[in-house]
Structure formats: C-alpha cells, structure tokens
C-alpha cells in the first residue's frame, strides 16, 4: 500500500465514505437522544450512586459510539464527530444560558432529600436512592452518619450536596465534655486550696 493510499484510508478521503453531512448530523441526533434519555432516566443515572449506574453509563457511551461515526474508523470521521458534538453542546448551552425556565425544564429541579435533619423517604423512593446509598454518599463527604446532616440536596446535575448541622452533634458532645471536665477541675482545685478543709 502506498503512502498516499494509507493517508486516504486513515483520513477517510475515499469517495466511498459517507457524505460529510451525515458525519456531522449523526452526533447531533445521538446527542439529542441522550439528553432526552438521561432526563427521563432521572438524576440518579448522573449521580452514579452505585456500580450498576456506572456500568450503564459506560455501556451507553460504548453503545452509541458506532451510531455517532457509523462504519467510519478514520481520523477525519472521529474528528468530525467530536467537532459536531462539541459544537452542538456549545450551542445548546449558549441557547439555554439566558432562558432560565427552559433550562429548569430540561435540567429539572434540585430535590431536598434531607430537610431540617430529617430524611425524606418519599423523595428518596421517587429518585430511586436507598438509605444505604445516601449514607455511603454522606460518608464519602466526611459525615459519620446522617444524624450529622442538616440538609442534603440532589442537584440537577446528579451530585449530592450535604450541609452539616451547626454545630454538629459530635462537636456539641465534645464541648459538653470539656465544660464538665473544667467544672471538675475547678472543684478539685478548690478542695486542694489551703484552709479549704479546716472549716
């Protein structure tokens, strides 16, 4: 194979390859499908709460790969697909930037899973998040238990934001112990003072 033929094959310059328009449209169609599909699947998929969710996202990306570039394995096909995806995302983000209501409709609303220190089990069930998964997420953010959490929000992007109680129960318990030790220390010093036991 000559160098020219190898370059034509690598960059997809062979006239038998799909039209340029097809290479640009395929990623746009898959992009729209995935945005709608992930919106319908809920925020849980984006949050990657457990191993199964991560596996689904990884397989999803592999599944749609061929739909984006078709049978084209060339560098040009891959670059055209990537450019088309990046351009589509840029245009969508720019379009939604000043349209708050439409953005909220597409992204959804944040959901309070823990409110005023109380777990909202009905909301957890609606978002398909178990109490164990919520506890594990709290541990990853440094909380010993859900008792230390004042508020937990499932953000529109799928992340879980935890806000601790102020002050945390562990800190309150520690402060209480320190006060008691100080009181005992003061009493011991009073007993050891000269003349304290002579009355």
Which descriptors would you attach to this protein?
elongated; alpha+beta; single chain; 9 helices; 4 strands; 199 residues
Which SSEs are present, and which pair or pack?
Layout lengths: L2 H8 L9 H22 L1 H5 L3 H19 L5 H23 L2 H8 L3 E5 L2 E2 L1 H6 L4 H10 L8 E6 L5 E5 L4 H24 L7
Antiparallel strand pairs: 1-2, 1-3, 3-4
Detailed description of the structure:
By secondary structure, the chain is an alpha+beta fold. It is 63% helix and 9% strand. It is built from 9 helices and 4 strands; from the N terminus they run H-H-H-H-H-H-E-E-H-H-E-E-H. The protein has helices at 3-10, 20-41, 43-47, 51-69, 75-97, 100-107, 121-126, 131-140, 169-192, and strands at 111-115, 118-119, 149-154, 160-164. It has a 4-stranded antiparallel beta sheet with strand order 2-1-3-4. Helix 2 (20-41) runs antiparallel to helix 4 (51-69) and helix 2 (20-41) packs across helix 5 (75-97). The longest helix is centred in the C-terminal third of the chain and has 24 residues, at 169-192.
Round the Cα radius of gyration to an integer and report it: 29 Å
Element-by-element helix/strand order: HHHHHHEEHHEEH
* SSE-based structural type: alpha+beta
**Average pLDDT for all residues:** 78
Q: What fraction, in percent, of the residue positions are helical? A: 55-70%
Shape: elongated
What separation lies between the terminal Cα atoms?
112 Å
Please give the count of helices.
9
Q: Show unreliable segments.
A: none
Report the β-strand fraction as a percent range: 5-15%
Largest sheet: 4 strands, antiparallel
In spatial order, strands of the major sheet run: 2-1-3-4
How many strand units? 4
């Amino acid at each position: 194979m000559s160098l020219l033929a190898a370059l034509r094959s690598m960059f997809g310059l062979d006239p038998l390859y799909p039209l340029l328009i097809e290479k640009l449209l395929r990623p746009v169609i898959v992009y729209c499908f995935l945005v709608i599909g992930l919106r319908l699947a809920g925020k849980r998929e984006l949050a990657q709460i457990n191993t199964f969710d991560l596996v689904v996202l990884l397989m999803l990306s592999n599944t749609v790969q061929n739909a984006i570039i078709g049978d084209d394995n060339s560098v040009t096909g891959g670059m055209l697909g990537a450019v088309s995806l990046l351009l589509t995302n840029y245009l969508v983000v720019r379009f939604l930037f000043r349209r708050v209501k439409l953005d909220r409709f597409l992204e959804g609303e944040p959901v309070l899973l823990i409110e005023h220190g109380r777990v909202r089990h009905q909301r957890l069930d609606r978002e398909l998040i178990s109490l164990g998964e919520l506890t594990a997420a709290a541990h990853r953010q440094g909380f010993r238990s859900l008792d230390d959490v004042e508020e937990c929000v499932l953000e529109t992007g799928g992340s879980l934001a935890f806000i601790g109680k102020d002050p945390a129960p562990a800190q309150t318990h520690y402060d209480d112990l320190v006060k008691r030790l100080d009181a005992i220390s003061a009493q011991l010093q009073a007993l050891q003072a000269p003349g304290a036991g002579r009355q």
